[in-house]
Write a structure and sequence with these properties.
The chain is an alpha+beta fold and about 350 residues long. The chain has 3 domains: about 100 residues; about 80 residues; about 170 residues, L,D-transpeptidase catalytic domain-like. Helix content is about 55%, strand content about 10%. It starts with a helix and ends with a helix.
Amino acid sequence: MILLAIIGGIGFTFLVAFSTKPPMEAIQQAQSGLSYAREVEAEKYAPRMMVSAERSWQLAMNEWKYQNERLIFVRNYEKLKTLAGTTNEQASLASEKALHIKDSLQSGLSNKLKTVGHKIDHFQVNYAHLPLNGTARQNYSNARLRYLESKQAYERGDYKQVGLNLDVASQLITKSVSEAHGFLSGYFKDLPKWRRWADETIAWSKNKKAAVIIVDKFAHRCYVYHGGKLKREFDAELGPNWIGTKLYRGDKATPEGKYHVTKKKARRETKYYKALLINYPNDDDKTRYDTNVKNGTIAKRGIGNLIEIHGDGGKGINWTDGCVALTNDDMDKLYEMVSVGTPVTIVGSLRSLKELNGF
């Protein structure tokens, strides 16, 4: 009996020693291949190929379990080895495709990011400070938010998310620029009239050898000419709704037209340091107001008055009720250069829209 046990033990040891062993190298290669594929986001950029690799891996694991449950001397791991090899091959192909797609996306998205970023910067410089309608401004804000999200996603390599956000950002900023430009194009139809007013005012200055004031609203500048030559210029702040002429009392718009100083107000006569009162409304303003009320364009609420060039400016925003505001230092200089009767011409712009923003 002892001899039989010894012989049986030796035989079992022999069987264990020479039985088929799991293909650990193939299994480890398959695991590494799958791990790398997941790392390069193959499930996102090569989903079908990754599904095939994951399915092969699951079949391999099922086969391994099945063989491990069999008697040791009848186990056969050839099918497991084949499945592990298939998993590794499919995972490698998925990784390769994912990397290729990501490289292509990275290059294309980099250029698109630059293009959209340029449009947003262009809007910021040329339109963001304008009193635009709510839709144009909201589209710009949403486009900027989407662009920033795209930029962050790009930096962390989430290129699919970049593409989705960037497409929306591109559409929104293109729409905003189009709306803003259309808004300004309508406004700038008066450019020939504005230039004519300015030319006439400068010619009057030359002929009379006297001072005149020209306010360029779009440039936010106040120019002083004497004898037809530019002598001084100052930064100017306007009413919040400065695009377009003043239509009625309380519209927060700075008027456009040819006026003159009717009164110089010293410090005790105005709450805005010093002021030059102008003759708004002039005859053209009154005619326009009456016409607009008659045809129903505006309600009858009064045309407004008391438009001045005054001090207390330098706030960096358009804040007045329709007046032109200078810093107190600049107001001191302007106050000394002009007198009652000095022409004051206020225009939308002296430069064309193309000169201002390239469109």
